[in-house]
Amino acid sequence: MRLMVGVLSLAAVLATTAVARADEDGEKVFKKFCMACHTAEPGKNKIGPSLAGVVGRKAGTAPGFNYSDAMKNSGITWNDEILEKYLADPKGTVPGNKMAFAGVKKADERKAVIEFLDKHSKQ
């Protein structure tokens, strides 16, 4: 019985550590690729719109940001699948959008930043 409790305790610690690590990785990727133009702070736009709450939001609708017609008319509602595609190729996913960014080429970095954005969409 003690062995099982120990194993379960270790599993809980490892799971918590893995979640914390994934969040750190996502924040690092966000800082590396996104933070120059975006923030994860609600209601605060920079050169680009705030990405707080982006998951589940219709594209082109963050308050107080002047979006391109292409983004406003894209018909996209942001989810993990669409973010994956967009982050890999912004201009190919929404032709005519005004974001001057070539994309995140590494799949693991896209996954990490999407997890970060998911977390900041649920707060």
Short description:
This protein is mainly alpha-helical and about 120 residues long. It is built from 5 helices and no strands.
Q: Structural class per helix/strand content?
A: mainly alpha
The averaged pLDDT comes out at: 86
Poorly predicted segments:
5-20
User: What Rg, in angstroms, do the CA atoms define?
Assistant: 17 Å
- Discrete helix count: 5
Structure commentary:
With 123 residues, this protein is mainly α. It has a single domain (2-121), classed as Cytochrome c-like domain (Cytochrome Bc1 Complex, Chain D, domain 2), CATH 1.10.760.10. It has helices spanning 2-34, 69-72, 80-88, 90-93, 107-121. Helix 1 crosses helix 5 (107-121) and helix 3 (80-88) crosses helix 5. The chain is globular. The chain starts with a helix and ends with a helix. Residues 5-20 have low confidence and may be disordered.
Topology:
Layout: H1 2-34, H2 69-72, H3 80-88, H4 90-93, H5 107-121
For this entry, give a set of tags.
single chain, 123 residues, mainly alpha, Cytochrome Bc1 Complex, Chain D, domain 2, 5 helices, 53% helix, 0% strand
